[in-house]
TrEMBL record:
It comes from the Bacteria. It comes from Tessaracoccus defluvii. This is Uncharacterized protein.
Amino acid sequence: MVSSTGDALLVSPAPMMWDSTAAAGTEPSATSSGDSLIEVPVEAESIQRHTTVLTLTPEAEELTGADVTYPVFIDPSIGPSRLNYLVVRSNASSYYNNSAETLRVGYCGWSGCTPYYSARAYFSFNIATLKTWEGANPVIAKATLNLNQVHNGSAASSNVQVHQASAFNSSTAWPGPLGSLLETGGRAGVGGLQFTSANLANYVSASAKSGVINFGLRAPNESDKYGWKRFDNNPSLTVQYIFPAGTPTGLTLGNALACTGRTYARTKQPTFSATGREFNSNGPVPIDVQFQILRATSDTQVGALGTIRTQRGVNVSWTTGYTLADGDYRIRARTVTALTDGTSSTSPWTTPVPFTVDTTVPAIPDMKSFTHPIGRESVTADPVTVVGDHTGGTFTLSVPSDSRIAGYAYAFNSTTVPSTTGHTCLSAGQVTDATRGIIKASNGTATLTLPPGVTGTSTLTVKAIDEAGNSSAVTVPYTFTRSATETHYQEMETRGLTLPGDTAWTINSQPMLSGGSQLFAPNPTIGNRYSARFTVPTTGTWALQPQMVKANSYGKVQFEVDGQPVGITDDFTGVVDPIEVNLYVSSGVYNSPEHLPVPLDLTAGEHTLTLISSGQGVAGGGASFTLDPLRLIRQP
């Protein structure tokens, strides 16, 4: 039998037959031939593509002759292909592949040996199946050389040596190509003799690349006739081997989301896939692909190994049978061959692949706008209506203290925000239409521009999406009114003044504030004055709308423009009743515009706005206030 590449895999020597005629020192049997070996003619006929019939036809006289002793044995053996055999003799000719001859070893100082001689036997095996395959060499677990001793020169046990040997042919003469000693062993009488040393296994391993292995037999003392032996010419070599397992390829996390340098699993029981590898040149053998989850920063195993039985080249999947807590992990895989004879080989682990389990839903996002002041620290079911907007503006979206936020889905004038598949990172903004879309966040915050098509009284609804694709609940729709009234916005944190008699402002910096900071008057004394400058673009009638924080520690404020109180003038007395804004609220923190309902005739250019602390917001409470930004709204 040959392989697809033409290498011999199994070889049958010429079939032999023998009868039960006893000879000196021998007792023929089904497994031990006598001296009367006769070759049996054989014919081969191919009847199908993969079927060949062998027909053995012994000569009739060899079955019925007067000198035939029954039973008669016919041995059409087939096995690991012994290629050639040779017996070399010191004082006689050699014989090569002579099927009628046994393997002779030692000193034949007995009658029948004329002249006396020493003999050595050599034989070879085809071990092409052990050749390197796809760059991998086989691992030899055990090798057994099997001999059948048919004659022993001594009644007692005597030894024979098994050696390495070089190549030989029909021209090889005494002493032959004997190499290093591998093992010594022996027995008395006749029967099987096995050699199983580590040296033997190592020799098989070293010879694997060539596809052929040669052995030599010699007696320990080639001058001692009691060491004379003969063996059947059909030795066999049994090799227990395995080609090494290969490190798996294609280790991946199923349903993964890669974002900002991380790979996210959006389930606490993720699924992993890999393709196992092994290098058995005789075809696939069973393998186990093993998956191991590790802690993020150590080789500490989490849970049990996952094991999937398969064969090489097949991509297999494993889902954890246990729940992983949210956090950072690593996954790696290896291949373990799994033969029924217990032989196994384990590959190195793959390089661990980091992944993050994140199933935590983000909090409802905050929305803040200084051009459309809809932001609240705590969103309630009561909408806040803002009038007098201009035609532009932005909204700042964030989830406080959550750096995982990748973006926000939004919708103007609809409570249905766009959805994401969760399989792609929000690497860019995605606009569904003019009023709906998804905007990418930077460091968890996004700035959304009010689209031109949103006019009149409108709403904005938003949800947050984190890097793992988890989505928050949507916000309560927030209502605002957009008109075409000319409005101008001025950041005030850089416009503070300290006029004679004034108290200096403190700058309060927070990321969510307009421009990142605001003017702040912390716990002023009643009557303290704080001033700032503002610019009127064109001469006309304007209303002022300062943006100011409301909280339970804030107080009352009155206003002056260019040193004149802002208020309602009594038509009869001419006395101005100042407008006073109370910034106290019992709970929550709000950043809202305070409309001063008094039109002011102002010339183009710079003017001064002064804020005067006029009392505590509630008895025993605080009196703080802020400013930023300031709106100027043109009046008819």
